[in-house]
Amino acid sequence: MKSYSIFILSLILIFPLTIFASAEDNIVEIKVPFQIKTKKQVAFERIVPIELSKIFRPYGRLPGIKSTNETEKWIKAGLTRKVEFEDGDTAIETLDQVNPSHDFSYHIESFTSPLRFLANRIEGEWIFSDTESGATAVHWTYRVYLKNTFARGIFNLFVKKDLEGMLRQASEIITQDLEG
After folding, report:
1. Which of 2, 90, 93, 98 is most enclosed, with most CB atoms within 10 A?
2. Buried b (16+ CB within 10 A) or exposed e, 77-108
C-alpha cells in the first residue's frame, strides 16, 4: 500500500511538469570521477575490455550483470554485444568510439527490463588523463535518455540512486583490481 501511495503522489507531482519540458530536460547525467594509481595506458587497456560481470554486481533494486555474448575482444568501435543481467533481462551495448589511452564511448539500448518503459538509451563515456602524481584520473559519465518528463520523475525517484551506487561500486572494484 505504501509503494502505491508513493506512485500516486509521484503522478500528481510529476505529471504537470511534462507540459513544459523539452527533450534536453529528459537526459539524466551521472558522473563518476575517480583516480587509479597506474599509468593511463595501463588503465585504458584494462578497463575497455573488462568483464562486465566482474564489476557490475547487484546494487539496491538493480541486478548485476551475469554475462555478455562477446565474440572478440571488446576494443574496437562498432562492436556490439548482448548483456544479460542476473534476473534474465537483457540489453544491447555498442562500442561507438575508441581513442587509445584517451577515451572511449558506447551506448546501451533494446532493454528488456522495466527500464524499457522509461529510457530510450544510455550513453557511456570514459575519459582518461594523467595526474601530476603519475596516477590516472578517470571521468566516467552515464547519460540516460528518458522517454519523457514523467519517465524522468519515475527514474529519479526509483532508479537514479541505485544506478549511481552501482556505478560507484564498479569504479571501486576497478580501482582495487588495477591497484592490487
Report:
1. 93
2. eebebebbbeeebebebbbeebeeeebbbbbb
State which H helix or E strand residue 35 sits in.
strand 27-36
Say if residues 158 and 124 touch (Cβ distance below 8 Å): no
Per-residue pLDDT of the chain (180 residues; tens, 9 = 90+): 455 565 555 555 555 554 445 556 899 999 999 999 999 999 999 999 999 999 999 999 999 999 999 999 999 999 999 999 999 999 999 999 999 999 999 999 999 999 999 999 999 999 999 999 999 999 999 999 999 999 999 999 999 999 999 999 999 999 999 998
Is the pTM higher than 0.85? The answer reads: yes
Q: Residue written as cell 568510439? A: 97
Cell of 60: 539496491
Domain boundaries defined on the chain: 2-179
6 grid coordinates:
508513493
Fold of 2-179: Alpha-D-Glucose-1,6-Bisphosphate; Chain A, domain 4 (3.30.530)
Grid cell, residue 154, equals 519515475
Q: Which of 179, 176, 109, 173 is nearest to 147 (CA)?
A: 109
